[in-house]
Amino acid sequence: MDSIDLNKLIAGEPRTLARAITLVESQNPKHQRESKNLLKHIFNLKKSSFRISISGAPGAGKSTLIEALGLYLVSRGRKVAVLTIDPTSPISGGSILGDKVRMEKLATSPHAFIRPSPTNLHVGGATNRTREAILLCEAAGFDIIIVETVGVGQTEFQVKNMVDAFVLAISPLSGDSIQGMKKGILELADLLAITKNDGESESLAKTTLHDYRESLQFSHRSDQWTPPIMAVSSLNMTGIADLWDSLQKYFSFKQSSGTLEKDRLDQQVIWAQDLFWESIHNRFKPKIENSTVQKKILKMLKSKMNPEQVAEVIFKSISN
What is the DSSP secondary structure assignment for residue 181, as one 8-state letter? Predict the structure, then answer.
């Protein structure tokens, strides 16, 4: 891969940005060295963005909601980057889904950039290079960066530690189904959007909206923010302006309270910790998978040592 032209990246040239993200995602040692150098150059660029995550269970309408919001924003002069995190194919290693196909209208806008990335079997709802991709999009001049996660799970908190606002997209549900939502994922939400508020599902969407407003309490939040709950229709573009207005209010709230700066610093601490553990993993993985070590493990297991004892012995032997 040719080196990345920093000037073209900062100018927002789409192909250069795409190649830069490919570079930081690469497992090639040469590419990894180049990506570290690139990230060092862009890390302190005085550019800012509003980083938003949109999550939700499969079928909640995340992609159509992102496209509707993206189209609304680019029509108002904003530059929008969408990082869509897809499940990884165990065969090819690539993204199973193609979000450029799912966001055809937004993909044609010269003010939008859409990048599907595989999870690489990484837990937490994001890839292990989402943070770097966010920085690259920011360096390229995109002032709104939207991260679409794989789905809802208890490890979804990881993407919360990469963004400024976490939006939970919810399909119209019966009242009893609210109790089935994982409490943890609801606690992460800075805003809840009841989707599909149109056509045959409009009545159910309004009922769901009422039920959530009646049932949910957010008094646990230490920042005194009460997450708005609203119904939207990506098909009719209704509620999209209100969604963006609420997101802006939350961003302003975080800025004025000082939590935006604090959160971003805390996120960098977590990022550094993750990179530390990644370095440890990369250092010891080849040693663990060494055939001699594998034979030693089998020998100890056959001698009736339990896995915990074996792990302790192996750790001491390879860490010296």
Answer: S
Exposure string of 121-155, with b = 16+ CB inside 10 Å and e = fewer, is: ebebbbbbbbbbbbbbbbbbbbbbbbbbbbbbbee
Q: Which residues contact 142 (CB under 8 A, 6 or more apart)?
A: 12, 49, 79, 80, 81, 113
Q: How far is CA 284 from CA 122, 277, 290, in A?
A: 18, 11, 10
The answer, yes or no, to whether residue 287 has pLDDT greater than 60, is yes
pTM, entire model: 0.86
**Nearby residues of 280 by Cβ (< 8 Å), 6 or more positions away:** none
Tokens of 151: 């789905």
pLDDT value at 90 more than 60: no
Structure confidence at residue 153 (pLDDT) = 58
d(CA 213, CA 209): 6
Give the integer Cα–Cα distance in Å for 224 and 222: 6
Does residue 314 share a domain with residue 220? no
Same domain, 278 and 155: no
For the chain, how many structural domains are there in total? 2
Q: Which of these, 40, 117, 19, 83, lies nearest to 5 by C-alpha position? A: 19
Between 159 and 266, name the one with better pLDDT: 266
